[in-house]
Amino acid sequence: MEKTDSEKIKLGIFVITGLALFILVVYFIGNKQKMFGTTDHLTAVFSNVNGLQLGNNVRYSGINIGTVRGIEMVNDTTINVDMIIDKSMFPHIKKDALASIGSDGLVGSMVINIAPGKGNQSQIEPGDIIQSVNRIRTDDLLSTLSVTNKNAALLTADLLRITKEITQGKGSLGTLLNDTIMASDLKQTMNYLKITSKGTTEIVENLNKTVMALGDKNSVIGVLNDPVIAQKIRTIVTNLDQSSQEINKVVTNLNATVLNIKNGNGAINYLSNDPNLVKKIDSTMTNLNKATILLNEDLEAMKHSFLLRGYFKKQEKAKQKAN
C-alpha cells in the first residue's frame, strides 16, 4: 500500500527530530568527555588505580577539566593513566601538582583529583608526567577497623575482669575501695592535709604582708630604702672609716711612745727610772708641804694682828658685795 504525502511528511519529521536528538545527545556527552574542545594529554603514574575506568572525570581543585582516556599496566607496581585535559587549564597546573584517585561521593564512580602544588614551579606542558599520591583504600580501612575491633574487644574483656576484681575487693585498688578502716585513715589524712594547707595559706599571707611592709617608709627597711637616709649612712660610714684611720695613726704614735719609754729614751723615762731624782722630788714636795703649812699659820696670825685686822675685814666685805 502506497503511503500518502502526509504520512511521508510525518515520517520525515520523526526521522529529523530523532536525528536532531541523537546529535544533541552526542554533543552533550562529547562535550562532557572533552571530545570537541581543544585538549591535550597528561600522564599520571599510580601503583593502584582502585577501580578507575575509562571516561572517568579528571578534576583540578574540584573543577572538571578532563577525562581518563587510557590505562596502561607497565609492571606489577606501575600503572600509567592517560588523561585528556582542557588546554585552557594548562597554565594553571604547575609541575609540582599531585594526582590522587578518589570517589565521586560515597558510592559514585572513581575520579582523578589533581591538587595544586605548594612551590613556585613553572606550568606543566602537554605530555608531562605528574606525580601521584596513593590514598588509603577501603580494604585497608576495613582491615584496620577489624584489628581495632579485636583490640577493643580484648580491652573490654580486661576492663570487665579488672572491674570485677575491684568489686570483689581484690588487689590494692579493691582493698582501698572496700576497706572501711583504710578509708577512715585516708579521710583523716585528707583532714590533716586540709589543716596543713590552711596553715600554709596563713603563713603565705603573713609573708606577703611582711614583703609589702618592706616598702613602707615608716618601717626599718623602708627607712633604709630611702635614698636620703642611705646617703647619710654612706657618709657616716665614710667618716667612721676616716676616723678609724686617724685612730690607727694615734695608736701607732702611742705605741712608738711606749716603746721609747721602755727603751729608756726621753724625759719621761729619765724621770720615772732615776731613783735619786725621785727622792729629790719627794723631798722637795715634803718641804713645799711644810712651807705651805707654815705660811697658812703666818697668814692666820696676821689676820689677828691689830695692824692688819682692818685690811682683812675690808677684803671680806668686798667679797660679800661681789657675791
From TrEMBL:
Q: Which UniProt keywords apply?
A: Membrane, Transmembrane, Transmembrane helix
Pfam families attached to this UniProt entry: MlaD (PF02470)
Regions crossing the membrane:
12-30
**Transmembrane helix listed as a keyword:** yes
Outline the extent of the Mce/MlaD domain.
40-117
Domain of life assignment: Bacteria
Q: Which PANTHER family match?
A: INTERMEMBRANE PHOSPHOLIPID TRANSPORT SYSTEM BINDING PROTEIN MLAD, INTERMEMBRANE PHOSPHOLIPID TRANSPORT SYSTEM BINDING PROTEIN MLAD-RELATED
Please report the name of this protein according to its UniProt entry.
Answer: Phospholipid/cholesterol/gamma-HCH transport system substrate-binding protein
Report the source organism: Flavobacterium granuli
Which lineage is the organism of this entry classified under, starting from the top rank?
A: Bacteria, Pseudomonadati, Bacteroidota, Flavobacteriia, Flavobacteriales
